[in-house]
Amino acid sequence: MKQNFFALVMRSINCNRVIEYIHNQWMKKGLISNILYPASYITKSFLFIKNYLYKIKMLRIFRARVPVIVVGNIYIGGTGKTPVVISITKELKSRGWEPGVISRGYGIDVGDRPKVGCKNVCFSEFGDEPTLITKKTGAPISVHPKRDIAIKSLLHNFPNINIIISDDGLQHVSMARDFEIIVQDNRMIGNGRLIPSGPLREQTVRLNQANTIVNNRINYEEMQETNIYLQENRPYTINMYLKPEFAYNISGLEKDFPISYFNCNNYYKKIVALSGIGNNERFIKTLNDCWIYPSSYIKLKDHCKFDKSLFYNISADAILITSKDAVKCLNYEDPRIWEISVDAEFSDKFFFNYLSNQMYQASMKLKDHL
Q1: Fewest beta carbons less than 10 Å away: which of 50, 57, 132, 336?
Q2: CA 223 to each of CA 78, 219, 361: distance values in angstroms, whole numbers, following the listed order
Q3: What's residue 96's pLDDT?
């Protein structure tokens, strides 16, 4: 069992070192980036041809019978899309909408038929992010690599849905959408180059084509900056901060506590942090901002699969994990494991009213044309 544990950790460490090195290159125009720069023209050419074929209608675009919101990014990897999807879903529900969510389901083998469910779904079938989204929002979710198949199955199983939110899918041009949201974190556009010379899936001009840009700020003070604007022909730009809420005990044997319970290690002497997300450094920054300083930090690759054996060999009084990793720990009976839950706070609450109004107008147009 120890061999399995250390093998998993070592593989993840090696993988993370490679990923960190690549991202460091992507944040500057270093040697490796410059060597790979000619290859980025392959990406650029592919994007141009793909978009052109859809523009001249040689390739079919699927149009859902309800409005579709896409939450995506142009920077490869995790930028904070899932918290945005969760917040939008909750806010639209509070305004009378019946939202459903679709997702790719990274890290799992979906198969030919889409996975459709609501609330109590299994992460091994749906993936960690879809499982977290439906758990937090109570909204139905459909998982499949082809977005049109996911949408059709979702609407078939839940006919009351009147709006769809796509977790990722910005680059899926084959899916018609009514509203685009691009999420950026502190890395912004990196060195501004396309893959593999840089971290971008699309050129920076794509930012100006979105309806909204959400800047996932690393500090609460940055979130409050007054650089929000709603101007004609420009994206509605707002800031977001992932504010830590509560610590939930996975086993249920301990009471739930506010984050301050772990401040300065005043109760648990040895705290270990563990995460398998797109930006692991973000989790440790969140803990440090709450005056929590783990004695060690285990970084796993994004969407990493693990089981109970991973925790058996960790020497700690408390193990802190993310909500995304917590959905993988169903029925774990280890009272040392705590989920650190975060809540997305936005710099402009009016945005959700604006979004709801935009979707109402999109819904009226669809009724006229479908």
Answers
A1: 57
A2: 19, 7, 29
A3: 96
Contact 283, 277 (CB under 8 A): yes
CA–CA separation, 19 and 302 (whole Å): 11
Q: Is the Cα dihedral 266, 271, 277, 278 positive or negative?
A: positive
| Contact of 262 with 247, CB cutoff 8 Å | yes
111 burial type by CB count under 10 A (0-12 exposed, 13-18 middle, 19+ buried): exposed
Computed from CA positions of residues 339, 222, 346, 81, in that sequence, does the dihedral angle turn out positive or negative?
A: negative
Segments of the chain assigned E as strands:
68-72, 99-103, 115-118, 140-143, 163-167, 179-184, 212-217, 236-249, 257-258, 271-275, 296-299, 318-322, 337-346
Q: Which residue has the tokens 């149009």?
A: 63
Percentage of residues of the chain with pLDDT beyond 90: 56
